């Protein structure tokens, strides 16, 4: 399975800067339900070489499992690029469900021998099972296959297995957790969300995974004597993980509480750190935000027909996606 990184060559940045920026933009556009940005970012990737499109396919699956795990049962891909975009558009339109991410992240920490994720409750059992799956994935997938499941669970598990080696270790833990949730409980029904505000705060793209965000967070943490890990986490909690709408996700809530405890910051006090520093981060990233917005706008204006064609292709694919047979699925 390819994990090649996307390269947008006409823009004057290093390959790693571009990959981090557009990876972040794509996921945050989905989380906030901004379909237009999903289309524009996807259309840019569509101009790239085949290797980069394979990266996009993998990324679409990871984003789905992380931000709306019940949709993992509907990862329908064929050989056309727009089938991957359709997956992201469906996730953008849906109310988010983040339990697979919460459980996966906790299990990943436990698999790394961090027992602080355990609180002595009966729910610790689930974290331990998924952590064992992280450590012994072959045994886990064999166990999952033996469980009695519904049709939706079977579909989700099949898709999760297909992408079991995708992305980074925590991504793989999330995908594994989604498969576990599919057999340990009923898959929640997902619902479409209301149209999101199409105004997008481009500065949130530059998080700790981008060179620009790393620089700003480091400088502000130093100048204001704020522990860097507290600044990075609160930025993610209040802005990076923000969604257009979400269902109650207890595992995500438990992970967030554990993470706050891990950085010695009470959750109820987090806003006292974040609210004064947010304007400074915005100001420090103003130039980066402006450049990104300008790049996207100019690209869209120069490729309007391409964007509109992609929208039509996605609309038709979503309407008729259930008619695609298994022999049409992408096999590479």
Features:
mainly alpha
Characterise this structure.
By secondary structure, this protein is an all-alpha fold. It folds into 3 domains: 19-96 and 297-328, no CATH class; 99-184, no CATH class; 210-284, no CATH class. Helices cover 64% and strands 0% of the residues. It is built from 15 helices and no strands. It has helices at 15-31, 35-46, 50-67, 81-93, 99-111, 124-135, 137-146, 151-162, 169-184, 211-224, 228-240, 250-262, 270-284, 286-302, 304-320. Helix 5 packs across helix 9 and helix 5 packs across helix 12 (250-262). The longest helix is centred in the first third of the chain and has 18 residues, at 50-67. It is globular, with a radius of gyration of 20 Å. The model is unreliable at 1-14 and 325-332 (pLDDT under 50).
What is the fold's blueprint, element by element?
Elements: H1 15-31, H2 35-46, H3 50-67, H4 81-93, H5 99-111, H6 124-135, H7 137-146, H8 151-162, H9 169-184, H10 211-224, H11 228-240, H12 250-262, H13 270-284, H14 286-302, H15 304-320
Helix pairs in contact: 1-2, 2-4, 3-4, 4-15, 5-6, 5-9, 5-12, 6-7, 6-9, 8-9, 11-13
Summarize the structure.
The protein has 332 residues and is an all-alpha fold.
Approximate helicity band: 55-70%
What structural category characterises the helix and strand content?
mainly alpha
* Helix count, DSSP H or I runs of 4 or more residues: 15
- Let me know the number of strands: 0
The geometry reads as globular
Q: Give helix and strand order, one letter per element, not per position.
A: HHHHHHHHHHHHHHH
Task: Give the percentage of residues in beta strands.
Answer: under 5%
Q: Quaternary arrangement of the chains shown? A: single chain
């Amino acid at each position: 399975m390819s994990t090649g990184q996307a390269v947008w060559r006409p823009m004057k940045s290093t390959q790693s800067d571009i990959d981090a920026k557009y990876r972040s933009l794509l996921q945050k556009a989905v989380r906030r339900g901004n379909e237009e940005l999903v289309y524009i970012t996807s259309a840019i990737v569509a101009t790239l070489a085949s290797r980069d499109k394979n990266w996009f396919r993998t990324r679409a699956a990871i984003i789905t499992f992380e931000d709306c795990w019940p949709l993992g049962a509907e990862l329908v891909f064929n050989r056309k690029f727009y089938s991957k975009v359709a997956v992201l558009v469906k996730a953008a339109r849906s109310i988010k469900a983040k339990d697979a991410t919460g459980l996966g992240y906790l299990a990943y920490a436990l698999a790394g021998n961090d027992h602080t994720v355990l609180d002595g409750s009966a729910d610790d059992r689930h974290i331990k099972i998924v952590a064992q799956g992280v450590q012994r994935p072959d045994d886990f997938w064999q166990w999952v296959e033996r469980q009695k499941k519904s049709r939706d669970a079977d579909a989700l598990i099949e898709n999760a297995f297909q992408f079991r080696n995708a992305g980074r270790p925590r991504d793989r833990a999330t995908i594994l957790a989604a498969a576990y949730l599919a057999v340990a409980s009923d898959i929640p029904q997902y619902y479409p969300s209301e149209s999101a505000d199409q105004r997008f705060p481009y500065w949130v793209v530059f998080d700790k995974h981008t060179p620009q965000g790393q620089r700003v967070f480091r400088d502000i943490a130093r100048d204001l004597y704020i522990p860097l890990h507290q600044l990075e986490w609160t930025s993610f909690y209040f802005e990076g993980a923000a969604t257009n709408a979400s269902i109650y996700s207890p595992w995500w809530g438990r992970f967030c509480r554990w993470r706050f405890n891990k950085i010695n910051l009470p959750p109820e006090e987090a806003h006292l750190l974040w609210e004064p520093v947010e304007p400074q981060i915005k100001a420090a990233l103003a130039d980066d935000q402006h450049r990104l917005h300008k790049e996207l706008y100019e690209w869209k204006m120069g490729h309007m027909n391409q964007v509109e064609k992609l929208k039509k292709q996605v609309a038709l694919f979503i309407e008729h996606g259930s008619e695609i047979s298994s022999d049409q699925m992408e096999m590479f």
